[in-house]
Amino acid sequence: MKERTTQYQHLEQTDIQDALVELGFKLSDRGTYWQTSAVWRNGDNPTAIQIYKDSGVWRDFVEDIGHQPFARLVGKVLGTNDKKQIQKYVRSDKLELNFLEERDNRVKIKMDQVYDTADLKKLLPHHKFYLDKKISLETLRMYQGGYATAAKMNGRYTFPIFQARVPNNIIGFTGRALRYKPESTFPKWKHIGQRRNWLYPLYLPTSDGYMFRDAVKKKEEIIIVESVGDSLALTENKIFNHLVTFGLGISSKQICELVALNPSRIVIAFNNDNNKPVNVGLESSIKDFIKLMDFFDVSKLSIKLPTENDFSDMHVKGTFNTWLSKEVKQTAQLTFLLKTLESPRGCHIISNRKKLKSKIEFLQEHLDF
Q1: Fold of 2-87
Q2: Which residues have CB under 8 Å from 35's CB, separation 6+?
């Protein structure tokens, strides 16, 4: 804390607050820091972003981004790296603006912490929350989840995350707050562990071995979804060939796993936020589609959003067949992707202008061909 404060000691707290309000943030006071939603992606989670009052240093819990300088936050909201534009919201000419320059190029590798499977015995078999969502007891037992009454996951229905190919090693937990409401000041989901290393539920050990991974290999298709809730709903509908990103977008480790599996079809199916000014789930899907284009032929990729907000809603409302029968026409989808990248939203989806231009040109050539 001392090191961070020293670097930004010239920035006054009132200046930070005024700038944040100007940028459209709604701040919740938490003592030494504020909590707020990610306005640049039209986020509605009021606890997604933490901003320290003394320095403007912030972190993004949803995208798992560590502490970043205040100037980078301003740049994200404005959608620019132009220092002159950013300086308009930074009231101190001594504030560090060279946030694009890496100070330390050394790669830091974080090792997964391994938890004892005995910890699962501490989870209570209180399953009503998911039973009410029409998830069977058989499925919940397969996922080895339960209600936590102590420690970091207190008050959350918690699922263990197992290490790839080591069925006795737990490398994390994810938990859903059962008392969460839209106005709550705590996050709906909480995660313990290195989420970007999770290959879930591909390596969830079951009585049939790695049933989920085997289903991907058998069907030669994988569906990429956001949350455990989606995974549960898919499993209830006997669709086991799927992968959860935990709302981060697909990670490097997950891409490596996809390359190893080499499926013939990759279906990206993040949440359908069509009732919001910006469909964040759709834009996240496009972002991952573009990312996967570097590793797979475009003919293997498709975006097929849920017909409701997510798969859990489809399962509860009984509309799964509508999604299953929904046909994705590749040419029409690629044309839509091209128009989206060419629109003003394109620079929000791909911030690197050179990469954005490259992907636009690729899609243009592909469609012309």
Answers
A1: DNA Primase; Chain A (3.90.580)
A2: 27, 28, 46, 47, 49, 50, 51, 185
Residue 88's pLDDT is 77
C-alpha 366/C-alpha 188 separation (Å) is 41
pTM assigned to the model: 0.75
Alpha-carbon span 49 to 146, nearest angstrom: 28
Q: For the ranges 13-17, 50-54, 184-188, which has the lowest average pLDDT?
A: 13-17
* Dihedral angle over CA of 247, 251, 257, 258, nearest 10: 70
Q: Tell me if the domain spanning 117-328 has CATH number 3.50.50.60.
A: no
Three-state SS string over 214-235 comes to: HHHHHHCEEEEECCHHHHHHHH
Q: Which two tokens stand for residue 149?
A: 């009454």
Query: Looking at residue 340, what is its pLDDT?
Result: 96
Q: Which two tokens stand for residue 21?
A: 């309000």
Please list the residue range(s) of the chain that carry CATH number 3.40.1360.10: 117-328
Residue spans in the chain of domains classed CATH 3.90.580? 2-87
